[in-house]
Design goal:
By secondary structure, this protein is an alpha/beta fold. It has twelve helices and six strands. The strands form two sheets. It has a four-stranded mixed β-sheet. A two-stranded parallel ribbon has the order 1-6. Helix 1 runs antiparallel to helix 4, helix 6 runs antiparallel to helix 7 and helix 7 runs parallel beside helix 11.
Length: about 325
């Protein structure tokens, strides 16, 4: 354990380290308000390496050729982020493709040299470096919070295809589960504006397995999942035992398998529909199959979706960027 004086010095150093990494971050070039993701990735890798070998000489961190940072690849970045509990994809190529990264890392190493961090033993010095990593990971989380799900609107395509493309876009960043749940909730609210459609966070809905379903309308429970597994079939069985009619909503490509499972479990007693069809059919009907009205109703659906996400979720990256032509 560090003596009291050294503990005080370390606490002060931690504060200085945060200011140093903040200053470095704020001096990076910005595009749309955010610095190059490669710079963040490279800094996280460098700070991790320095915890094992505190070498502030830039040349010892460069790959052959001197244009890239050694070890700043996708796998290394993914592991670092996971260590801090951040599982969302951030950068497909790590920090290697950022040609300005060596200069940015040089500035970071210079800031570390000015901190006087070398005088501390390896363990407390490692804690300071990890504090700097943690600060950068928070910036990664802020980046994800700003990144809404984006979709284009083509009036020539069906409403079901729009929903399918939304699910596909969300799936790339592992957001298809939350999107599916809140999109179904938005559809129910759009269709039944006088009813109170419950609105829970995606994680809450997953944990509270004692509820009848993700949504309960009348005596019907709606279960929404992009990956139907045994627990959802058990919930449908539980609904039937309580006199509740279960609807199981899954992506289009999962319908056949889910329907077969339900027929084996409870023949003719569980309605299985694709999320695409369930959402699209009512939107088309509400618009009375008019193109102009359909555009308006799709816009209303997405706005209701965003309102529900904003109210229920801390992670605002589940929001949808509504296309300008809507």
């Amino acid at each position: 354990m560090l003596p009291t004086r050294e503990s005080s010095e370390l606490a002060e150093l931690n504060q200085k380290a945060i200011e140093a990494i903040r200053t470095w971050y704020e001096n990076l070039p910005k595009t749309a308000g955010f610095p190059p993701k490669g710079a963040i990735a490279g800094a996280l890798v460098i700070l991790g390496r320095l915890q094992k070998d505190f070498d502030l000489k830039l040349s010892n961190h460069l790959a052959t050729g001197g244009a890239q940072i050694r070890g700043a690849g996708r796998a290394a970045l993914k592991k670092i982020l996971a260590d801090f509990g951040e599982e969302r994809p951030f950068l497909s190529e790590g920090g290697r493709t950022n040609r300005g990264l060596p200069g940015q890392v040089r500035d970071l190493l210079a800031n570390l040299g000015e901190l006087g961090i070398a005088q501390f033993p390896a363990d407390p010095r490692g804690d300071v470096l990890r504090t700097m990593q943690s600060w950068l990971v928070e910036r990664v989380r802020e980046f994800h919070q700003r990144q809404r799900i984006r979709i284009s609107f083509d009036p020539a395509k069906t409403t079901a295809q729009l929903v399918k493309e939304l699910l596909g876009e969300a799936k790339q960043n592992r957001k298809d589960g939350p999107l599916a749940q809140h999109l179904v909730g938005a559809k129910l609210q759009l269709r039944y504006p006088d009813l109170q459609i419950e609105n829970n966070s995606y994680s809450t809905a997953d944990l509270q397995l004692g509820r009848a379903g993700d949504f309960l309308v009348g005596d019907t429970a709606f279960h929404v999942t992009v990956a139907p597994m045994p627990p959802v079939y058990e919930r449908c069985q539980h609904n039937l035992q309580r006199g509740i009619r279960p609807y199981l909503l899954v992506p289009d490509e999962k319908v056949v398998g889910a329907a077969q499972n339900c027929e084996t479990m409870a023949p003719g007693k569980v309605t299985v529909l694709s999320i695409e069809t369930f959402v699209a059919a009512n939107v088309d009907e509400i618009s009375q199959f008019s193109s102009d009205a359909l555009r308006r109703e799709i816009r209303s659906l997405l706005r209701i979706y965003n309102d529900r996400v904003d109210a229920a979720e801390r992670d605002k990256s589940f929001l949808i960027e509504i296309p300008s032509n809507l």
